[in-house]
Amino acid sequence: MLDNNTARTATPLTPEERSWTAPEYMHWSATGEFPAWHPNHNPTAPDHSVSRNHKHSKLKEAFLAFHQRHPEVYQWIVFFAREMKAAGYIKYGMKSIIERVRWHIDLNNPQWKDSEGTLKLKINNNHAPFYSRLVMEKEPDLRNFFEIREQSITRCGNDGKQ
How far apart are CA 79 and CA 139, in angstroms? Predict the structure, then answer.
């Protein structure tokens, strides 16, 4: 038994003995950075904000290129969004509208299919947030119709370009 004069020193837990705290796990899942106690911790890890902004700019570039090649997709999105608003919806999801545009393209436009029947016109799910912002910016009757999250890049201009 220890008496009051014995020095008590805490020995750190090994990674195998230690469990993650919720904030540590959330930080790791969001950034990929391990906590300092973890054997995979890399104190010289790159700044993820740079790569995130680069990723967003690539997504935006891909969206703008697609939007320029296929302006009819925007027109269909606006048409179906107005149809949902007329049906009484106050808010609606852009991804649902994009699925409906895909269905419309698949059903009504055989010119966009290759010889095997596979669609040549494909709408990337990453375009949804950009279409939401663009539609709400350009179409006054659809302002605030889509739920959006904060985005770290600037919004598209009225012509879909920066």
Answer: 11
